[in-house]
Amino acid sequence: MRTRKPRGDRTTALALICTALWFLWVAPADADPAPAAKAAAPAIAVLDFELNDLTLLPGTPEELARTASLRPLVEQGLKAQGSDQLVSIDAAALAQANVGVGYLYDHPEAAAALGRTQGADLVLVGRLHKPSFLFAYLMARLVDSRTGMVVRDLVVEAKGQTGPATARAAARLAEQVRETLARH
User: What is the pTM of this model?
Assistant: First the structure.
């Protein structure tokens, strides 16, 4: 009669190999995705907003100051929401790319080219559209610098001409940008 060898050694080795493979397969799912997400955060350039005032008294000093305050307010809102890669656009390059009022807003491919030269992945081109003394619209286009395509058109209504109303609208616009980036 033939004697059989105990199979415990083979079974134990096979169990260890299967366990090791299982850990290798499961471990990446448990890994923290934050470093990869942080590395993939796009660099955003926020351009100065332009005023499109359709009221009977267009371009008042107060409205020009309000319009000039929008870029810093939107950048502040983006920083508050975790966007730490904001790109500053060189004034000379901006002046050269912006052929006229509304040009970069109406020509996203030109805004994308400007963004590429300055190292931005996305460019936010904005305009303050004021059809009435009672309200205004913060209109912005988020443009992909690589493709020249508009990622999303953003619109926020600002009721009133006060500083707090403008700040709330700029914060809401920054929130819309963040929401877009989360889906993009």
Answer: 0.76
